[in-house]
Amino acid sequence: GCKSLVLIRLPPALEATGADIFRGAKLLQEQLGESHDDLVINLTCRFTTLPLHQWCYSQAFETTTEASLQNLFRVLNPGVFEDEIDLSRVDIFEMSPFHVLALSSSPKAGFFQAMMEHRGDIHSNLLAQKDAFGKTALEYLCLKDTPEASEAIRYILRQTISTKTTCLGLEHWRQKISHETSLCCAQDIDRVVRLERIQKVQESLRFYTTMEKISILEQALWKAKMIFRGYNDDDYNPHSSMDVNAIVLDREASRIQCGADIVIPNVLSYT
Fold first, then answer.
1. pLDDT at 237
2. Which residues of the chain have pLDDT under 50?
3. Which of 124, 149, 198, 258 could be disulfide-bonded to 144 (CB atoms 3.0-4.6 Å)?
4. Which of 50, 24, 28, 54 lies closest to 39, judged by CA?
5. Are 98 and 138 contacting, i.e. CB atoms less than 8 angstroms apart?
């Protein structure tokens, strides 16, 4: 049951009195590589130098969402004599602020939005970051069955997956990703099933993104080769000022004579 303690932070008073508090928590000690005494000390100081982690941990105790957001903006925008907030910093469990927020009892979508859009950047790479237990913030969110968690998941998927489909050239690729994403956001879905669907969408996006890059490269290579073949071999001059757009390209002949083992679909017709 040690993994249920991943969000624990001890009050300073326990530094001296918690001599045996984690004697049986072998997994925590193995994961952190700490002796028991060091573990207790580190947990009492877990967020001492991590103000954003501290906010993510304690925001659930605020009286209103508005008050929480005001405090979050203060943390994200420190004074001129304070260090700028670095969202990539991690605690002793290698957790980013997103991990801590996902594990809190109040993981509101608005909080994720404020953090992800900090400084005008979408920190989607941090949401894919794994902690010492091999978990991402999104995986921890999927363990919750609350409406707040479901709304946060929908927002994160929209920012990390849906917005990236715009780079995909084929409509049916975009439609497939959109459909799979909508299945992840369905109401009253089992949390294990939700996580499996999200992982499937992420795999599909990686595959189609790779195919898009390869297709663009293949298209450029085809175009260059076909333009080269458009010149008479005797007249070919790489420094010629001849208008390449005036060359008539025989696509079918190029397909037959190219010598390639594989011709990627949907490429040749666009060259």
1. 55
2. 1-2, 17, 231-236, 271
3. 149
4. 28
5. no
